[in-house]
Structure to design on (431 residues):
């Protein structure tokens, strides 16, 4: 057993709770609380330095739980601290799920800041992670931008659903007959904000309405007469809204459309930032050579994966050969897929083997989102992936598109890992 000081940290917005223990599991400091600030960091560092000097430890293992971003400034400071680096310090960032399930190995205990640091340190001491944490400052800014875009897109989708709810009150058949190809297109927005009721437009002769719609669109409608007929049909088939509700419903729709336009503008701004940041990431930029994958999806995937070499370490136990071997790209592919939640855990007991294997859906949901979105583009532009998607689509009777798309995303992980590892552009025929 190596003589290394074990430190567990439970972070919160205001504080950082510490537990220091010996390599045999005996607590040295069961609980010490510090502020999650520069002053608190200095005091915590002095506590660790005193313990290292007093007990002649050979090294230092510091483990923290990934709670929001409360851990990040503290860890960044630890990683660059010149006073701690001579002590062979290693940082470990633990998934909160690991700690949660690890605590179930013990008798029921309090869930409090005084006890949690102990379990964090004990988890690393008994189940040491294979790879430590490193700042990866080269991809961290890009990751911030891609996660911000994910956040904005989710808000945009939620706001559009909210808008659609009140659109049903204004014109219940509008989405059914689709007068315009895009409900949130410019011409559709102008029609929906023209007046609290669409009856005035529907009352126009169809040719006059067609000319009016053509003018609203800036003469971009390919068949304004067809749009006019569909709009009149949608108004005719819609329920009449009580006059006392027309004004508040229209007011909500107008404000919701303003917010939708604002969010769309923010998404475009963030995408411009992503494209700019991507110019300094040559390895991730290789992913843009995949047909259909632009800078946004490439950045989202590459920023979450980070340095691909970390998935090739350390050695892996080979069950067939009964010895350790170097990890290969297939091992790295499986690891990335597992982090993204694109794997199907087995369930068996004795002679029983479950036939249904559900998608894990755990891990990095940002990576899973960008992989699935990218797979949807790849199956539209790459024949191999189009054929794979079509085959999986035919093999099931329910959730055809979702199932086929997730399986296509899992297939694409191998291509992504290969390009990142070799730092080369996509070539048709590989994958």
């Amino acid at each position: 057993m190596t003589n290394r000081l074990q430190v567990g940290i439970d972070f919160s917005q205001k504080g950082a709770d510490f537990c220091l223990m010996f390599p045999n599991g005996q607590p040295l400091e069961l609980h010490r609380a510090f502020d999650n600030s520069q002053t608190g960091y200095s005091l915590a560092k002095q506590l660790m330095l005193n313990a290292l000097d007093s007990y002649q430890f050979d090294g230092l293992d510091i483990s923290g739980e990934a709670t929001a971003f409360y851990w990040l400034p503290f860890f960044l400071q630890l990683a660059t601290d010149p006073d701690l680096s001579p002590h062979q310090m290693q940082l470990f960032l633990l998934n909160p799920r690991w700690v949660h399930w690890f605590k179930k190995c013990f008798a029921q205990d309090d869930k409090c800041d005084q006890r949690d640091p102990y379990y964090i340190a004990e988890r690393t001491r008994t189940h040491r992670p294979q790879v430590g944490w490193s700042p990866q400052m080269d991809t961290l800014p890009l990751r911030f931008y891609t996660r911000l875009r994910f956040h904005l897109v989710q808000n945009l989708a939620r706001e559009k659903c909210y808008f659609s709810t009140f659109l049903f009150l204004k014109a219940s058949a509008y989405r059914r007959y689709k007068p315009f190809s895009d409900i949130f297109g410019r011409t559709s927005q102008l029609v929906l904000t023209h007046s609290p009721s669409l009856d005035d437009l529907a009352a126009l002769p169809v040719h006059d309405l067609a000319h009016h719609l053509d003018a609203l669109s800036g003469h971009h409608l390919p068949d304004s007469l067809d749009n006019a007929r569909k709009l009149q049909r949608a108004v005719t088939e819609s329920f009449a809204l009580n006059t006392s509700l027309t004004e508040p419903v229209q007011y909500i729709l107008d404000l919701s459309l303003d917010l939708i336009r604002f969010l769309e503008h923010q998404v475009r701004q963030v995408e411009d930032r992503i494209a700019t940041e991507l110019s300094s990431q040559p390895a991730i930029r290789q992913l843009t050579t995949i047909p259909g994958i632009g800078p946004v999806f490439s950045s989202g995937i590459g920023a979450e994966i980070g340095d691909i070499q970390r998935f090739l370490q350390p050695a892996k136990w080979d069950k067939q050969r009964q010895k350790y071997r170097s990890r290969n790209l297939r091992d790295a592919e499986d690891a990335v897929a597992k982090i993204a939640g694109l794997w199907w855990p087995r369930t068996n007991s004795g002679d029983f083997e479950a036939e249904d294997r559900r998608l894990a859906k755990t891990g990095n949901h940002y990576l899973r989102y960008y992989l699935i979105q990218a797979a949807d583009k790849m199956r539209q532009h790459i024949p191999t992936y189009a054929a794979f998607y079509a085959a999986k689509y035919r093999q099931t009777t329910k959730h055809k598109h979702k199932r086929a798309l997730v399986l296509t995303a899992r297939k694409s992980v191998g291509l992504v890992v290969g390009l990142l590892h070799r730092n080369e552009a996509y070539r048709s025929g590989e994958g």
